[in-house]
Each structure stands twice: as C-alpha cells, then as structure tokens.
C-alpha cells in the first residue's frame, strides 16, 4: 500500500516538533514545517509521483535534500532521521505538547525549569502553583494546564477527517473486493462527517463472516489485530487509527447501518420512538413481539418510526427528529452549490502559487470567482503585503481579469485585526478591494471580553466583509480563544458582516453549532479554504460537510451567490 501524503506530512511535522524541543535552528524547523504543508496540500499522491520518477524538488519548499527524504519514506515507510532524533527524546515532553496552547518550546522550557519527568510531575507542579512562577507562564496558563490534565483526554488521539479518509478510502475499496462481501460501508462519526473521528466503524453485509474477517486482517496496512471473531474484529492501522469491523446478514443492513452510524443520542431517540409504536429497534432489525418486521434498509427503519430518512450529518439529536416529524428538515447546501472561494493566498504573501496559477486552478474547479486575500503588513513572518504591494496587486488582478471569460479574481486582503480591534490597513485602502477578510493572528490570549470586543470593533469598519477563522481553533492542537460567541454572532448580524467557515481540515472553524446559531440570526457564512496552494482549494468539501452538520442551506452561504449577487451582498453600507 502506498504511503499517504498525510502520513509523510505528519512525519515532517513531528520531526519539526522534536527539533523544536531540542532547540534546533529555527530555519531548519521551519523548513520541515513548510515541507509538511506542501505535502499536505498536494492534490496528487506523492507516492505515485515517486513511482513515476517525478522530480519532487520542483514542488514548492522542497529541495534536493527533502526530496531524498520523502523518497526514502515512500520506498521504505521509514524516516531514519526522525527515528534518530526521537531516540533519546523525553516522551513526557512530547505528550505535554498536546496540551492546547503549549507548543514544543514551552513544553521544553517547563520541563527544564521545574526539572519534571512526567505528566504527573507537571500536574503536581500546576497544583502547587510552581508553573505560575516560571517566567513566560502565568496563573492563566497554570490553570489551563491543570484543567487539561484533569480532563485526561490529551493522550486520547482523535483523527482529522482528511487523515481518516486517507486510510479509510483504500481500506473500504479493499474490503469491497473480498469474496463474499455483498455490501460495505463506513459508519460512525466518519459517515456523519464529524471534524475528527475516534475510530472507524465498518459494516459489511456478507455470509461467511470468518472468511471475510481473515481477509480483512490480512490487509497490508493492518499493524495490530486486537480481536478477531466470526462476526467482528478490531485492528489498528499503521497510522494508529482503530478499525471496528462487523459482518452482518444482508437483511439486517438498514438496522445495522443506522445503529452504527449513530450518534448514540440519535439512536436512543429512535429506539424510544420505536417503543412508543410498540416496536423494538436494535442493530439486527425491527421487531414486533418476537417477529421481524423490517430493517433491511435505512428507509424502512425511519419509516417504521414515522419519519422521513434523515441525513447522517444531522444525526446528533439536536432537533433533527422533531424537524423530520414536522417535515421541516433543512435543504442542505451541497458542494455543487459553491460558486467560488473567498479566502486564498499567493506567493505575494505565504502562498505557494501565483495569481494566475490560483485563478486557473479555481477555473478548473468550475468556479466563477476566487478571492485573493494575502496577508497584511503586520504578518511579517507570513510575508504580509505593504500598502504599496496591495495596490500593485489590485492592478495585477484587474489586468488578469481582462483576459478571463466568465471568471474573475476578486481583489481582497486578509487584514490583521490588531490588539485593540484596529485594522492593519486604513479603510481608505480597504475600500479599493472587492472583499476584505479580517482575522486575528496575534494576542490569542486576551480574556473573553477583550477578545470579543476586539473582533466586534474590527467589524465596525464597514469595509470588513468576513471574519476569518473566527475562533482560532486548531483541531486537537489549539483550543478556540475565549470568545462570547453569542455576542459576536449578534454583532455580526447587526453589522451585516459574514463569518467564515474555514474549510481547512485542521481548523473547520466555525464549529457546526456556531454555524447554525449564526444562520438562525441571519448571518451569512463564507465557506472558504484559505488555500495556500492550488491543491488547498480542494478542501472545500470538508467545509461543505461541516456546513451541512450546521444545518446550513444554500441561501445561508455567501459563496453560493453568483458574482452579480455577491458583489451586492458585499456592500455593507
Ligand atoms: P468516534 O468514534 O468517537 O468518533 O464516534 P462514533 O460516533 O463513531 O462512536 P463509536 O465508534 O463509539 O460508535 C459507533 C456508533 O455505534 C455510534 O455512533 C452509535 C453506536 N453505538 C455505540 N455504542 C452505543 C451504545 O451504547 N448505544 C447506542 N444506542 N449506540 C451505540
Ligand atoms: Ca467511530
Ligand atoms: Ca467504534
Ligand atoms: Zn488566510
């Protein structure tokens, strides 16, 4: 089985983390991180590029040395440098980096200063108030560390949906080819398109369970077999993700896929409705007294409990059952409804491709428009544009647009929101743009009131159209900054400002719940990829899935509008 892009990328990221803990040269660390991003953003499989003899050093940020390392990983599945660096590494420090807000550098500093050797030590130090005394750390960080360690979930790994896909899709294709498999589907949180998944739940309809499971555990990427029976098996794949597989007879398909899709709460609600109707619903079927009355299809299951079929993305027991009962289910937005992308970067700031390359990639996706929103001047480490640079880019975009037919680049900017809520560029400059995304990239640790005020002040500028990645969360890495989301959403509604649903699978920021709250108050959502390379535009589908989990329909989403209507919607004043 070929090595997936996400595996290669996470090896480089991991190496960068370890090197940071070891105080390695900062440029070297950055080089590995950039490589990880490039690899993750590739729409093509790096493994197949290696197989075809493509020159990897032509990829952005990949030199001969990195190309060689990638080739080794693809050919052998191993990364000797990473193994070498990991050898004498203190595992506890590595674990500590999973506490949101504690990166490799800070984890190392804490362990050194307080002479710690385990997470238990760290928890004790937090309890005794020693952390607040270390320079660079305060009461707030100490309280956070205490809280995170108490929750005890920092060592329970969840997988980003895109990483899970890298492993799940080839696996399900393999399973469908096994003799005797009539049907196979991935259920659980994966089918509900949740932003992170704990494990994969695979359901197979077939007769000879034993033989099917033998073939399943023989799959190349299976690293460990935890259990193996006639109807069920649990294994761990190379990535560390667990897979639960169950084999059932085909006549139970509907009841079983319904059960294993979940969520648990949705199931419980469904079972209760069945009981109210004198029926029993479980993973094997629908029963009246002792006899089976259905359960071969999901439609049959829902029909028996008096409901239309409910899309898996809605099955969280957040009112979908009541809505279904009243014929009030949302008409969910689809990827086909998306007409363009409203947040992207080019080589002018920290992107990897030119205006023209980004435009062509957007046209290839069938888009009518793409907003170029490079960083503003304060973002020096991300190559932020000066006012002059931006003026020049506006001209360049106008010139390119003259040559396009039925497509346009929108001149935009991802303008930094400064500490006090001021913007990094004056309104007089921003007013020359088609669209302005305003984002926070610094001072992430303000308290809730200050941070909320800061964003609301930014929205006071009538030039701001969209708040970028509104909560700043990085899934499994950084919690959202403290924000009063209700107040923020109300302020956005009052001002006619949209909120972004950043489609990058590492962010998916806004959350499903906040998308829904925003839409209920009439706030439009921009589903944007924040692409830093042409391949990044492909992340749109994760954003759309998340929007669907947030009950959004087409009219809730800004970038389903034609350019004609969008240009009107962007005029706030
Ligand atoms: P995950 O893996 O943490 O991302 O979340 P899920 O939703 O995939 O949960 P998982 O893998 O524990 O179980 C898969 C589905 O099986 C779950 O969504 C609903 C069903 N299920 C599991 N345990 C129970 C249970 O105790 N009661 C009911 N009604 N359903 C359950
Ligand atoms: Ca699961
Ligand atoms: Ca499971
Ligand atoms: Zn951006």
From TrEMBL:
Q: Which organism is it from?
A: Marivita lacus
Any keyword Nucleotidyltransferase? yes
GO MF annotation: an example = exonuclease activity
Q: Does the keyword Nuclease apply?
A: yes
Q: What does this protein do?
A: Repair polymerase that plays a key role in base-excision repair. During this process, the damaged base is excised by specific DNA glycosylases, the DNA backbone is nicked at the abasic site by an apurinic/apyrimidic (AP) endonuclease, and POLB removes 5'-deoxyribose-phosphate from the preincised AP site acting as a 5'-deoxyribose-phosphate lyase (5'-dRP lyase); through its DNA polymerase activity, it adds one nucleotide to the 3' end of the arising single-nucleotide gap.
- Boundaries of every Polymerase/histidinol phosphatase N-terminal domain copy: 340-419
Segments forming domain Helix-hairpin-helix DNA-binding motif class = 54-73, 94-113, 129-148
**What SUPFAM superfamilies does its record include?**
DNA polymerase beta, N-terminal domain-like, Nucleotidyltransferase, PHP domain-like, RuvA domain 2-like
- Enzyme Commission number(s) of this protein: 2.7.7.7, 4.2.99.18
Annotated catalysed reactions = a 5'-end 2'-deoxyribose-2'-deoxyribonucleotide-DNA = (2E,4S)-4-hydroxypenten-2-al-5-phosphate + a 5'-end 5'-phospho-2'-deoxyribonucleoside-DNA + H(+); DNA(n) + a 2'-deoxyribonucleoside 5'-triphosphate = DNA(n+1) + diphosphate; 2'-deoxyribonucleotide-(2'-deoxyribose 5'-phosphate)-2'-deoxyribonucleotide-DNA = a 3'-end 2'-deoxyribonucleotide-(2,3-dehydro-2,3-deoxyribose 5'-phosphate)-DNA + a 5'-end 5'-phospho-2'-deoxyribonucleoside-DNA + H(+)
List, for all copies, the residue spans of the domain called DNA-directed DNA polymerase X.
3-316
Q: Which cofactor does it need?
A: Mg(2+)
The organism's superkingdom is given as Bacteria
Entry keywords, A to Z? DNA damage, DNA repair, DNA replication, DNA synthesis, DNA-directed DNA polymerase, Exonuclease, Hydrolase, Methylation, Nuclease, Nucleotidyltransferase, Sodium, Transferase, Ubl conjugation
A single Pfam family it belongs to is HHH_8
Record localization: Cytoplasm
Q: What is this protein called?
A: DNA polymerase beta
């Amino acid at each position: 089985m070929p090595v997936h892009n996400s595996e290669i990328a996470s090896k480089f990221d991991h190496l960068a983390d370890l090197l940071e803990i070891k105080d390695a040269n900062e440029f070297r660390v950055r080089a590995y991180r950039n490589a990880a991003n490039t690899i993750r953003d590739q729409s093509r499989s790096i493994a197949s590029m290696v197989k075809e003899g493509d020159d990897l050093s032509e990829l952005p940020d990949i030199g001969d040395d990195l190309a060689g390392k990638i080739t080794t990983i693809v050919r052998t599945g191993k990364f000797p440098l990473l193994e070498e660096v990991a050898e004498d590494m203190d595992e506890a420090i590595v674990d500590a980096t999973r506490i949101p807000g504690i990166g490799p550098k800070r984890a190392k500093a804490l362990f050194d200063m307080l002479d710690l050797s385990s997470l238990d030590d760290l928890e004790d130090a937090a309890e005794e108030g020693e952390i607040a005394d270390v320079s660079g750390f305060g009461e707030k960080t100490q309280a956070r560390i205490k809280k995170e360690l108490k929750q005890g979930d920092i060592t329970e790994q969840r997988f980003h949906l895109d990483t899970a896909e890298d492993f799940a899709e080839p696996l399900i294709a393999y399973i469908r080819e096994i003799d005797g498999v009539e049907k196979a589907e991935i259920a659980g949180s994966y089918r509900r398109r949740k932003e992170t998944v704990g494990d994969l739940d695979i359901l197979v309809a077939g007769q000879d369970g034993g033989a099917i499971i033998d073939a399943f555990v023989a799959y190349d990427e299976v690293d460990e077999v935890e259990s193996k029976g006639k109807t069920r098996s649990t294994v761990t794949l190379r990535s560390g993700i667990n897979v639960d597989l169950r084999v059932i007879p085909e006549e139970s398909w509907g009841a079983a896929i319904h059960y294993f899709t979940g969520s648990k709460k949705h199931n419980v609600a469904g079972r209760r409705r069945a009981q109210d109707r004198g029926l029993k619903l479980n993973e094997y079927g629908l029963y009246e007294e002792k006899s089976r009355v259905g359960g071969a299809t999901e439609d049959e299951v829902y029909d028996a409990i008096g409901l239309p079929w409910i899309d898996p993305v809605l099955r969280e027991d957040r009112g979908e059952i009541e809505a279904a009962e009243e014929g009030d289910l949302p008409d969910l937005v689809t990827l086909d409804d998306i007409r363009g992308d409203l947040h992207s970067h080019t080589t002018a700031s920290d992107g990897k491709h030119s205006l023209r390359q980004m435009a062509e990639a957007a046209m290839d996706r069938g888009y009518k428009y793409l907003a170029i929103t490079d960083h503003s001047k304060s973002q020096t480490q991300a190559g932020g544009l000066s006012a002059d640079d931006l003026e020049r880019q506006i001209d360049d975009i106008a010139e390119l647009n003259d040559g396009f037919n039925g497509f346009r680049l929108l001149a935009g900017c991802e303008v930094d929101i400064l500490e006090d809520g001021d913007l990094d560029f004056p309104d007089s400059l921003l007013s020359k743009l088609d669209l302005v995304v305003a984002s926070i990239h610094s001072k992430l640790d303000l308290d809730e009131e200050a941070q909320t005020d800061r964003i609301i002040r930014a929205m006071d500028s009538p030039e701001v159209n969209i708040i970028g990645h509104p909560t700043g969360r990085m899934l499994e890495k950084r919690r959202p900054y403290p924000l009063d989301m209700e107040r923020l959403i109300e302020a956005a509604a009052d001002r006619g400002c949209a909120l972004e649903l950043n489609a990058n699978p590492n962010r998916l920021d806004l959350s499903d719940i906040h998308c829904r709250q925003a839409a209920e108050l009439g706030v439009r959502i921009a589903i944007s990829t924040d692409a830093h390379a042409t391949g990044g535009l492909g992340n749109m589908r994760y954003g759309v899935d998340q929007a669907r989990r947030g009950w959004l329909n087409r009219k809730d989403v800004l970038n389903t509008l034609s350019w004609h209507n969008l240009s009107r919607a962007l005029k706030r004043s």
